[in-house]
Write a structure and sequence with these properties.
heterodimer; A: 439 residues; alpha+beta; Alpha-Beta Plaits; Dna Ligase, domain 1; six-stranded antiparallel beta barrel; 30% helix; extended; B: 222 residues; alpha/beta; Rossmann fold; eight-stranded mixed sheet; 22% helix; 29% strand
Chain lengths: 439, 222
């Protein structure tokens, strides 16, 4: 006989605290949302006493963790939830009593889809007992398998086993330095030792890491922190050590180091077999080292894969993480906070058409002085080019996002200068700019 | 009976138009595209990038080659690249902010990282590029499969490039009749300024200077 306890936070979501409390009492815990956890309460009497004592202990432990909670224990999750939610604070449903306990409870306890809830309401059903009493065959005809599943829950029958939750292991190593480290080399060596230990643990757990962080406590109490993100998840201690050296040489700690901490962000990488027809790609280890050197050279904000933002605003682009090895664990929309247009889609659309004329952007657009005749530009002067305009078309007005705090509007002209240069001019109502040169 | 590889024309040798042109760039060699503003050099580069990043793929990015683009002047327009058909996710863009030395250092790092099908160093009017940098890049790319292309406004005498393509603007194409209403594209000419490739798979490889003077007229569409 399985007994399940529900630990329910009363006021606010407290998932981490609830999970900690539950794991301290039972090896099998299910993370059921922000405000509740279920734990297997079977066989805990030897440790914590009978069920009322266990329930009281759970509530006290949650209170000690700063969470006001309610506890219910029953044979099914739904009955345990009802006991926690509707009971006096600590409620034990006797074995075999789930259906009777649930009968007067409201249907809302089931978290039904809106359509189903409306339908049951039209049938005049208000409580779980009324749903449980309906003929199963008729319910199946009208609501299908979901209807039968809901009815079984209403009867306190919950065949689904607990989905066990495991805490993410912490891959972190620390070391204190007996004597302060004044030069970079010993700092690098100590961090490499810590990294090797972390990588060994990652490998033993069958995991890789897609990010590493370290912190050095300095003699004056300040903290020097750093991080690196490899191009692909790795566990190779030698690679991590090489990257660490590069990163620390680019930004060394300014002071005497007294203690070090190194941690990894673990990810599980699904093995994938590449196609024989795929073109070659840079080796992950070499690519990671190259990218880190490039970041040190040009800065992290100047390197990546270009991505088009989902707007018609001129030159609306972003730099996404360059990831030649797509990982099933990483999202495809790699520009955080922005919607990007799918380049592949555009490629499919444009493949097979005439080759496209490229625009070379000036970033930022160069201020230009434009001479007009009859409202049309006839000469342009800017820092990049100067000349008489022999042909031009425009103005093409482009605008957008007038509904947002950052509306934009400009008139664009494509012009040919006397020396044959083709360029794009833009006028935003107040000033002219040279946006780019066709090439 | 073994057939000497030199006697077999490589795929694409007989092809005309842009397909034949894009097949000219020899792997493991330094090539150059030189030409003034609005002569189609950047469009040619983007067409090559599109071809490489989508070759072998079937609607996805995993089959195509990887391209590194060292952008000396931060002038790459990703919208143009996408319009040319390039898979942007296979493109590593390194913006150098108008610093020649940084661009050359970045290029040096990238050509020493095997696996990129193409490394582009777009210098445009940034320069002049030191002769020693040319030599260094040529040495770094030798023996690998990477195509290295330097795009600049002017050809430098003494460059060790195996292939130099010169682009020349012919005429813009406008839409509409009196008045014209829209820029439709650009017609440009690409010619082999110099070829001294000895690569066996290069169409130009059957003798130094072969193919020199050959010209392609290309229509780029906006």
């Amino acid at each position: 006989m399985t007994r399940i306890a529900c630990l329910l936070a009363v006021n606010e979501p407290a998932r981490p605290a609830l999970l900690r409390v539950a794991l301290a009492h039972s090896p099998r815990v299910e993370d059921a949302g922000a405000d509740r956890v279920y734990l297997d309460a079977s066989g805990l009497a030897g440790l914590f006493g009978d069920e009322p004592r266990l329930a009281a202990r759970l509530r006290d432990a949650a209170a000690a963790a700063g969470v006001e909670s309610r506890v219910g224990i029953a044979e099914s999750r739904i009955a345990a939830l009802a006991a926690a939610r509707l009971g006096p604070g600590v409620m034990i449903v006797e074995p075999g009593g789930d259906a009777a306990y649930l009968a007067p409870a409201s249907l809302s306890l089931l978290d039904l889809p809106e359509e189903t809830a409306t339908r049951l309401s039209r049938w005049g059903l208000r409580t779980l007992g009324e749903l449980a009493a309906l003929p199963t065959a008729g319910l199946f005809e009208r609501l299908g398998g979901d209807g039968v599943r809901h009815q079984r829950l209403a009867r306190g029958e919950d065949p689904r086993p607990l989905v066990s939750w495991r805490p993410v292991p912490l891959f972190e190593e620390s070391a204190a330095c007996e004597w302060g480290l004044e030069t970079l080399e010993p700092v690098v060596e100590r961090l490499r030792e810590l990294a090797a230990r972390v990588c060994t643990r990652l490998g033993a757990a069958g995991l890789a890491a897609d990010g590493f962080e370290w912190a050095c406590r300095l003699g004056d109490g300040r903290l020097h922190e750093g991080a690196l993100t490899p191009a692909v998840p790795i566990t190779d201690a030698e690679s991590v050590g090489g990257l660490l050296r590069l990163a620390l040489e680019a930004r060394p700690p300014r002071g005497v180091v007294e203690a070090l901490t190194f941690r990894a962000r673990p990810v599980r990488v699904a093995p994938a077999q590449e196609s024989l027809t795929d073109r070659s790609r840079p080796a992950p280890r070499l690519l990671t080292a190259t990218l880190n050197r490039l970041v040190a050279l040009v800065g992290a904000d100047a390197i990546g894969a270009p991505a088009l933002l989902d707007t018609h605003r001129p030159d609306a682009i972003a730099l996404a993480t360059y990831q030649p090895y797509p990982s099933p664990l990483r999202g495809e929309g790699r520009v955080r906070g922005e919607e990007t247009r799918g380049a592949e889609t555009r490629s499919e659309e444009t493949r097979g058409e005439a080759p496209a004329l490229a625009l070379r952007r000036l970033r930022p657009p160069a201020p230009a002085s434009v001479t007009l005749a009859s409202g049309r530009p006839v000469a342009v002067r800017s820092g990049r080019l100067t000349g008489r305009i022999v042909a031009g078309v425009g103005p093409w007005r482009v605008s957008g996002e007038w509904w947002s705090p950052r509306p934009w509007l400009q008139d664009e002209w494509d012009v040919e200068l006397a020396d044959g240069t083709l360029c794009r001019l833009a006028h935003d109502g107040s000033a002219w700019r040279l946006e780019g040169i066709y090439d | 009976m073994a057939i000497p590889i030199e006697s077999s024309p490589p795929p694409g040798w007989e092809r005309e138009g842009i397909d034949g042109l894009l097949g000219l760039f020899p792997p493991g060699r330094l090539s150059e595209i030189v030409g003034p503003r609005s002569s189609g050099g950047s469009s040619l580069l983007l067409a090559l990038i599109a071809r490489i990043t989508t070759s072998g793929s079937r609607g996805g990015s995993q089959g195509g080659g990887q391209v590194a683009f060292v952008d000396g002047m931060d002038a790459l327009d990703p919208a143009s690249a996408a319009a040319a058909g390039a898979d942007l996710s296979a493109l590593l863009w390194v913006k150098c902010g108008g610093r020649l030395r940084v661009a050359l250092s970045a290029a040096d790092l990238l050509v020493r990282c095997p696996g990129f099908a193409l490394v582009v160093v777009d210098l445009d009017e940034l320069g002049p590029m030191p002769a020693s940098a040319h030599l260094r890049l040529q040495r770094a790319v030798e023996g690998g499969d990477t195509i290295l292309i330097i795009r600049s406004a002017r050809h430098r005498e003494g460059s060790p490039a195996s292939l130099v393509l010169a682009t020349r603007r012919l005429a813009p194409r406008w839409m509409g009749l009196r008045p014209i209403t829209r820029l439709a594209g650009l017609r440009s000419e690409v010619s082999i300024f110099r070829s001294r490739s000895s690569h066996t798979l290069s169409p130009l490889g059957r003798g130094q200077g072969e193919g020199q003077g050959r010209r392609w007229t290309l229509d780029w569409t906006l």
